[in-house]
Amino acid sequence: MSGEILSQNEIDALLSALSTGEKDADELKKEESEKKVKVYDFKRALRFSKDQIRSLTRVHENFARLLTTYFSAQLRTYVQITVASADQIPYEEFIRSISKMTILNVFEVPPLDGRIIMEVNSHIAYAMMDRVLGGKGVSVNKVENLTEIETRIMSNLFENGFENFQEAWAGISEIEPVLTDFEVNPQFLQMVSPNETVVVISLNTQIGETSGMINICIPHVTLEPIIPKLSVHYWMQNTKKERLSGEVEVLEERIKNSELPIIAELGGTDISIQDFLHLDIGDVIQLNKPIEEPLSIKIDEVPKYVAQPGKVGKKLAIQILDYIKGGDEDGR
């Protein structure tokens, strides 16, 4: 009645209630005719469509693959990073959902306005640092006591890793991520207003025996200029253009590297087989073209140009004078 699908047990219970008089058919019709009211929370405004969320998920799936390759090379151990979820929530809710002591990397992404947060679970961060320093990748949770050296190692590791973000977003926008802040307490980080809608992409991360989450928080205000590009139509159209452009470039490159035989024909003549068999060194063959006439230049046996003979340094050469009309299919 409200568009919901009932189970067989619910159907049996409803029929039983009608037959025993507990439910009246007229009452059911009345409930059907009543206006249904849907509760809307203005503090939790949905500003991204499902289509746009899917596009963001696709971008970050590529980012996760790039991060997996990067961290595997840097840490020299088993690393697996995958997209767990992509949700739009108020910024205040995101801040409340993460640990009080965690690793917060804040990036600017010019030419887009605003900043992006890369929040890394402390267990994951310490496992990474332990591997960088030559350990087995053991996690020790002591974020509040980070030394300057530990802070520098972590910030450099995540800053270099976030450079892959630029490659992942290349099909939508040319951005240049720059690390601007490094925090361990989310309460000290007021990036946007509490009710501002943000997209949070959560990445499942496995570093050796240690697992945890990496969260990417992107405010709506940052993505607003490029939101139309997040549609599937734009994505597919752009992918098709890139594919065609790439194919054309490859074809042009192959054509440019193709080799064609070029012949400068001085002239021609007809002789008998008898004369040909008696040719000897020093014999002269008279050609059918006067020396003052230009030469015919053939490319792959097709006459294309007329030229005059000459020399460049000690080498014989020809100088192109003109095209031969009708020398190819387009009439040139």
From TrEMBL:
Belongs to the FliM family. It is found in: Bacterial flagellum basal body; Cell membrane. PANTHER family: FLAGELLAR MOTOR SWITCH PROTEIN FLIM, YOP PROTEINS TRANSLOCATION PROTEIN Q. The keyword Cell membrane applies. Residues 253-324 form the Flagellar motor switch protein FliN-like C-terminal domain. It comes from the Bacteria. Pfam families: FliM, FliMN_C. GO terms for molecular function: cytoskeletal motor activity. NCBIfam families: fliM_switch. It comes from Peribacillus loiseleuriae. Keywords: Bacterial flagellum, Cell membrane, Cell projection, Chemotaxis, Cilium, Flagellar rotation, Flagellum, Membrane. GO terms for cellular component: bacterial-type flagellum basal body; plasma membrane. The keyword NADP does not apply. InterPro entries: CheC-like_sf (IPR028976), Flag_FliM (IPR001689), FliN-like_C (IPR001543), SpoA-like_sf (IPR036429). This is Flagellar motor switch protein FliM. GO terms for biological process: bacterial-type flagellum-dependent swarming motility; positive chemotaxis. It is a peripheral membrane protein. Its main location: other.
